[in-house]
Amino acid sequence: MCGEFGSMPVLGEPAPDFEALTTAGMVKLSDFKGKWLVLFSHPADFTPVCTTEFIAFSQIAEELKSLNVQLMGLSIDSVHSHLAWIRNIKEKMGVDIPFPIIADLDMKVAKKYGMIHPGQSSTAAIRAVFFIDDKGILRAMIYYPLTAGRYMPEIIRLVKSLQTTDKYGVATPANWQPGDKVVVPAPKNKEEMDKRLSEGYECKDWYLCFKKL
After folding, report:
1. Is 152 exposed, middle or buried (0-12, 13-18, 19+ CB in 10 A)?
2. What is the dihedral of CA 83, 87, 92, 93, to 10 degrees?
3. Averaged over 156-166, what is the pLDDT?
4. pLDDT tens-digit map of 175-202
5. Confidence category of residue 126, pLDDT binned at 50, 70, 90
6. All domains in the chain, ordered by first residue
7. What pLDDT, on a 0 to 100 scale, did the predictor assign at position 6?
8. Helices 79-93 + 48-66 axis angle, to 10
9. DSSP for 146-208, written as a single string
């Protein structure tokens, strides 16, 4: 993706900087240094799948907060539209939206983050989720089409995986859940390979060893 619709951000590099108007006033990416940020885009306010997602995101906001994560939404709508939609969700569904939503009418943030996919729509952001760590580094991205709502437990699981791998210098295997065994990094030389077989790990072979944290 490049040109008029922006470029794709790159994992492991600083997340694209932005300053934007939100339902909580002006925010800059640098405001979140020291915190993790989960930034997600949605196609449009007052649409059915997006409404179910906002209710679902609201339900995980407290758990994310306990993990030092700020949640923030974005769509190519005005602040007035966002505020009216938030009020509608509160009145009709009884749910408070506890996180800010970027009003990206000029598509500046959407283009920086590669949220505009013309095969889906040239005027609406796809459903993307960006995981930015407490140092401002982009650590993970998940993209969904307009027709598929997101699965919130995977968003929480991925945050916990990233934070676990940072803290312990390990990796997490397929289908990992907090409390499961983790993967010990593969050995880099023969000495490490020989040593690890006596370190009490659960090894399937010399390159695949698990341990409990």
Report:
1. middle
2. 80
3. 98
4. 999 999 999 998 889 888 888 878 889 9
5. confident
6. 3-150 (3.40.30.10), 169-211 (3.30.1020.10)
7. 61
8. 90
9. TT----HHHHHHHHHHHHHHHHHS-B--TT--TTS-EEPPPPSSHHHHHHHTTTT-EEEETTE
Whether pTM > 0.85 for this model: the answer is yes
Asked whether residue 78 carries a pLDDT value surpassing 70, the answer given is yes
| pLDDT tens digits for range 33-60 | 999 999 999 989 999 999 999 999 999 9
Residue 183 near residue 201 (C-beta atoms within 8 A):
no
- Grouping H, G, I as helix, E, B as strand and the rest as coil, residue 65 is helix
Side-chain half-sphere exposure of 141, counting CA atoms within 13 A:
17
The one catalytic residue in 2, 50, 203, 209 is 50
Mention every residue, 6+ apart, whose C-beta is less than 8 A from residue 46: 81, 84, 85, 88
Joined tokens for residue 39: 């930034």
Residues 154, 171 contacting (CB under 8 angstroms): no
Integer CA distances (angstroms), 179 to 101, 176, 199, in order? 33, 8, 20
50 is catalytic: yes
